[in-house]
Amino acid sequence: MPKTVNKNDNLKKNFNKTNPNNSTTKKFIGKPSTKITKNIKSKKTFVKKNQDKKFSNPKKEVFNFTTNKDKENKENNNKTHLKRPSKVLENSNEQNHVNDKDQHLKTKTEKRKEQKERLKFRKLNKNNGELIENAKNLWQKIGNSKNEAEKLKTIQQLVELVKGNIFEIATRHDASRVIQACIKYGDKTVRETIIDESKGKIVELTKNHYGRFLVLKLLKYANSEQLPAILSKFKGKVLELFKHREAGPIIDEVICSYSNNKEKNIFIQELFGPEYAFFKTDEKVRLDILIKKKPEDAPKILAFVQKFLNSITAKSNLKLKTVHIVMNQYLNAAQPIDRSQMIHDLVPFVSDFLASNIGLETAINCFIYATPKDRKIMLKETKGVVHKLCIQESNNSFKVILAILAHVDDTALLQKTVLTEIFTETSTLVKSTGGRIILLYIASAHQVEKVVDLKKYIAPDILNVLLPIPITLENGQTVYTNKKPHKTRAKEIMGYCASNLINLCIEHAEVLLFNIHGIRLFYEVVIGTPGQKQPILDKIVTLVSQQLDDQSEETKLKHVMIDPCAHRLLKWLIKDSGNQIDASYAKKIFIAVNLNLETWVKENRSLFVILSLLENTITANTTKNALKKYHKEIKQVIQKPGAVLVAKLLGIN
User: What is the 3-state secondary structure (H, E, C) of 144-204?
Assistant: First the structure.
């Protein structure tokens, strides 16, 4: 009878062949003994009982199938196992292993000292390590020295030391400042030495994160002979450098701060196409003029500029002034479809254009030519900077706000974003020229049929921002940048701002009445703002009735009856009493003037206010009767123009 072969026996044999030294598997591979299975079952029932008792974290026991022999081997290994050697001091000649216990007993000061020594050792092992260390020591002496002659002598020693290795040192993070200090504090000879050695590698230095600061120092301290030599190294490399993240701001500084108009024109031409990098003209070249001169090359030029601007936009490097110049020229010269696509890409970055004058023009063009959807996103991007744009005096940033008010048709969105932010800090708003012009536009725009009619208040260069621009589409159809009529939009804006304007005039009357834009704003609010305007008129009457305690010229000019601007507003209001203003208002002004009439008949500007009261039919008789006892005072100042006209009306010879 053939012998039956157990399957488990075959498994044991095969496993033992491959693992001859495995003692544990010999015992347990195959069917486990009944003793072990009973233990496993008992453990399972133990866990199940614990879970039934709803323990929060039942502790399950782990089964360990190791034999006694394995435990003995493990213990022996632990006894004979060597501890990990400690770090070896790199600067010592003999490398000694330090026990973990001894290392633990070291103080923090000793550990720090050891780290410094290792760091110093690594630095000295680098290229020119010892040279750089000596140079840094001399640099420290320069900073500590207060004697100019001694400082210059140390700089000369330093330059002699680093000569021939300036590029390597300038591109090191821990040594670049050494060369920069030599440029800053050195004399003409020192600077010539560094410039002569560096100018051959100016482009490489510009691309380096640390070397670019040396380039800025060279540009700043170079004289009239050295600067052209440095600038010549950038010719033909402008496009390449603008696309580099580190070099972009440096070449922008080169063009905008250190180049004259001729050199600036030559550099910018390189961004119009590869041929302009080699064949340049000294004439000022603008993109729209260039396209008109060479219409056959227009698609190629515009495509090249568009590709360049797209690469800059992709890197979010849109704060550079040269990019603003090229972008503005492109938006004015491109076809409507290409322009709309470019503006769509610029929507998230519109706040980056608010840093420079030419950038502001680009931002204005974006708001003028953008689609309603893109305008909505751009308004959200300007959140938080609206008030700053209104009051900034260094550039005409308020023109961006005017462009928004004149071209965005969604006035409900304007009210939630721009208009709310304009009136947040009225104290600074009324003191700035830009803020007063914006308020004047809001107050007066709804009273004219066309934007052109605002020329009596707004200068021509500012007025151009407000005009709607016609766009000719590919099918020949002409459309405008805004669809809503000017007067409709202006009335809606005024409806949101009426109460704010009235409160602003009452609160800041002392500021507004003493400048030309302020009195115009006051007048437009009084005659054209819907709502209760009596408080504004009462405020003016209160200021007129104030008495002059001091007769000095400085004090007189602070009174509304004598101030060059404020007295003109009084004349306008008296003239309009009975027409656009309540007829009783002229009487109120007369009562206020009559309180100090003896003082006002002696001053030229206040005499013109009295003349307005005499010319108004409502107050003419009462004013004549009040002046009868002051004929003598008027004769004493008859040389003044105001006195001459008043005397003529009163019949004083």
Answer: HCCCHHHHHHHHHHHHHHHCCCHHHHHCCCCCHHHHHHHHHHCCHHHHHHHHHHHHHHHHH
Residue 392 has, within 13 A of its CA and on its CB side, a CA count of: 18
366 contacts: CB under 8 Å, gap ≥ 6: 331, 343, 346, 347, 350, 353, 374, 378
For the chain, give the number of residues.
653
DSSP secondary structure code for residue 628 in this structure: G
CA distance 414 to 394: 25
Q: In 10 A of CB 560, how many CB atoms?
A: 25
Tell me how many degrees the CA angle 482-485-486 measures, rounded to the nearest 5.
Answer: 90
How far apart CA 561 and CA 609 sit, in angstroms, is: 7
Pick from 323, 273, 327, 264: nearest CA to 299: 273
Instruction: Kindly tell me if the per-residue pLDDT of 653 is higher than 80.
Output: no
Q: What pLDDT digit, counting tens, does each position of 389-448 carry?
A: 998 877 788 999 999 999 999 999 999 889 999 988 888 888 888 898 999 999 988 888
Determine whether 217 is exposed, middle or buried from the number of CB atoms within 10 Å of its CB (0-12, 13-18, 19+).
buried
Residue 625: phi and psi, rounded to 5, are: -65, -40
Q: Which residues pair with 300 in a beta bridge?
A: none
Beta strands in 508-634 (DSSP E): none
Quickly count: other Cβ atoms within 10 Å of residue 574's Cβ: 25
Coil, strand or helix: which one is 581? strand
Q: Give residue 471's pLDDT.
A: 79
- Count other Cβ atoms within 10 Å, centred on residue 530: 12
Residues with Cβ within 8 Å of residue 182, at least 6 apart in sequence: 155, 158, 159, 162, 190, 194
Tokens of 35: 């003793």
Residue 383's nearest CA partner among 406, 355, 413, 343 is 413
Checking if the pLDDT of 528 tops 90, the result is: no
